[in-house]
Amino acid sequence: MNYIESSAGDALQYMANVYGKGLEYEKPPFTFHSTEWEGLARDRMSKNSLGYVCGNASTGETDRKNRAAFQKWSIVPRRLVKTTTFPSLETHLLGQTLPVPIAIAPVGVQRIFNPDGEIASAAAAASENVPYIFSSASASTLEDVAKANGNGTRWFQLYWPGNEHNDLTASILKRAKANGFSTLFVTLDTYKLGWRPSDLDNAYNPFLRPDSIGAALGYSDPVFRRQFKEKHGKEIEEDLQNAAKEWITRIFPDFSHGWEDLAFLRKHWDGPIVLKGIQSVQDAKMAVEHGMDGIVVSNHGGRQQDGGPASIDCLERISKAVGSKIDLLFDSGVRCGSDIAKALALGAKMVLIGRPYVYGLVLGGQDGVSHVLRSLLGELTMDLHLGGIPSISEKHLNIDCLEYSECKS
Fold this sequence. Notes:
The chain is an alpha/beta fold. Helices cover about 40% and strands about 10% of the residues.
């Protein structure tokens, strides 16, 4: 067993093992510089896959704001805080107690980054005790991902078909529940793909490709298969080009649902429901009014709409307005442990990790994803420990631990 496997789920043991191997003149297979993961992954990706994961909407303004806004907040350390243990990362979310405050964000088409795709990511998440969120646009079926995730905590993300396809939505939700996906995440900002210059320059839309690279959920669904056969008189496998085109119109239906449509989801899902893509206080309040269990404060990492506000700035405002009434999760722009700490201090109970774990997948499959997750948790632990913050509970880690500055250096 190598030192990656032997320290699964224990970031500080991982650090100790790396230094121990250094005594034998052995260096780790992956860098611990989180700012270098993207560059190393870029060198290995095709233009298509690089443009897809690293590209942004329009000029990339929203993405740049996401990153810069973290630097406006500083963690102010306290001294002579007597400690006998390392900080607790335990978080209470959606009626559960979870060992860490991060989760794998839903990212589709993962086989364009590594042949093992979602299978590797789901297995890594389970080994690190990190919840895994399955994307409706995955290249693997939810049944196969559930098997790879084993006893891990797994949640299901829905790209929501239009109301004319409610029977398909109900079928998908039934399958997810049957395969151990305990929470439903509904993405609100992607009823149509954004204006993405990188993908347009490459004339690349992975969802239109005549294979299952982003359509495994649909191709394996009995309702979608039946509807396709009734319309075309043949099985999906006999006409993959049309199957791909029809599936993309299901999960990206062009137009948005309304708040009243949430009643259908509640009827067909008996677990927690989380709305992903909330950025305004008004929408956060609407989520509370409609009985949602949580929201993800997110701008899709700047990949959908340009010219928007930084996600962390939205979190601060939303937390003040509804933080005591609904569970808050966060994503967009997270690249290191201190980013996670700042989001938690500003009111998030869980932080979703997106692009960084994809870079790990590119660099080393399951081991690469594990390395990224363990590194982020290790950084978070040490940032708290050396800052005199004994846990991530609101009692210990809150906005009072931060200092605000307009500096964007």
